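User: quick one, fold this
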Amino acid sequence: MISRKPAHLLLVDDDPGLLKLLGMRLTSEGYSVVTAESGQEGLRVLHREKVDLVISDLRMDEMDGMQLFTEIQKVQPGMPVIILTAHGSIPDAVAATQKGVFSFLTKPIDRDALYKAIDEALEQSAPATDDSWRNAIVTRSPLMLRLLEQARMVAQSDVSVLINGQSGTGKEIFAQAIHNASPRNNKPFVAINCGALPEQLLESELFGHARGAFTGAVSNREGLFQAAEGGTLFLDEIGDMPAPLQVKLLRVLQERKVRPLGSNRDIDIDVRIISATHRDLPKAMARGEFREDLYYRLNVVSLKIPALAERTEDIPLLANHLLRQSAQRHKPFVRAFSTDAMKRLMTASWPGNVRQLVNVIEQCVALTSSPVISDALVEQALEGENTALPTFAEARNQFELNYLRKLLQITKGNVTHAARMAGRNRTEFYKLLSRHELDANDFKE
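Assistant:
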């Protein structure tokens, strides 16, 4: 007997003999089974028991399989249903799957086909974890589960955590989960993107400012360190923090005090720091772009979130979870992905990770008029993603690269001239070239 994932199945058929036979087969495979001899009885079972999957005969008196499916979706939207029939046809199967039935199998049932359909249905509809501290993280990936266990353990202390991962992998959600699992969970969780604000504004946001500290500072304002008092401050894209602010942040972490801009008074703080970046900070340190002492202050514990392409087993789980959320907000009649649509989601490259998956599913729900998301619609949404707007940080990075290339072309690789045109000194300009891996010699004639 193959060891299968534990699941509770509801079998509905008005033929007691066939119902008993199928129940015995599935029980021998390791499933927990409950049976019902009519659609109405099946609905009563659903009201009193937690069921993972329904397998129903199509032709039954009073309430047939498709009517039962419709009623099930009213009370438990997203519940996977497999329909069995001795009178199946291709049009029947197409109509059933378009309405959201997971699979439509013809009797006599091929055992392997049935087990395959059950496994796939359970795979695509598995619920999110019951652990409330990480409810926002939908996963069954062994990589992610190990990472979450590490996160749960590190949450119990106040050590600084550095989360590494590509853009769109969910670093902020992960940081929030660590906060939720920590003794600080009843205090604020405050997040800021260190790469999205100009230097002076970022400094004011983090440390606060006194009245008159700069033009427009008409009153005292507390910073995010104070706003997060007793809780957690999440510094996203810490690798993009300007060098002068890195010095000030290091001082705050060492002294556990913050001094608002324009003030001569230090304020004691009690804040846990979690930071995140998509950049390779050791390489940034080697280029002189990130302080080594700050890196070791932030990187007491390092957690790396895998890219979505590294945990493809999570794609059906995430896709169905996101589909239910989007459909509930916009189009409640949307129920599922077609088999081919799910295959396309599974084989896509996902350079934008979970953020890109969210966008694709939102597009599909917005454009569909059917309960089932088609393969063609997923393909269209994926193609549209190729022309989607980049994030602010990505756009700024691309602008810098193009700007520097243009400067070097105009000045024929003369760094002194190029730096003067850019309004930067030579040291700063060389750091910019290094960050974008540009060599001025490549532009000399």
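User: anything notable?
Assistant: The mean pLDDT is 87.
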